[in-house]
Amino acid sequence: MKRSVLTRYRVMAYVTAVMLLVLCACMVAKYGFDKGEGLTLAVSQIHGVLFIIYLVFAFDLGSKAKWPFGKLLWVLVSGTIPTAAFFVERKVVREVEPLLTDAPSPLAKA
Asked: Is residue 43 included in any domain, yes or no?
């Protein structure tokens, strides 16, 4: 497995987690204070697209790391729980880093 697979997952895990926190703040503003309805709509749509990309990258990492279904499901669901993705990402990185290969690509030899 290449390091780029893990890097893509890490970036999307953080982006998704931050966007989910922003979305939660927008929801509090919208429903608690009746402010920011347009902003909430925009943030929810952006988060939705980013979450789909996160799912693709997490599934790719899980299939390459040969995770059991339960673990893969937990990693996928962690993007829906505020702050969970931060903790799950750290655990995933610790488990996957020993599986990485840093073999140089054929283009690097030229």
From this structure: yes
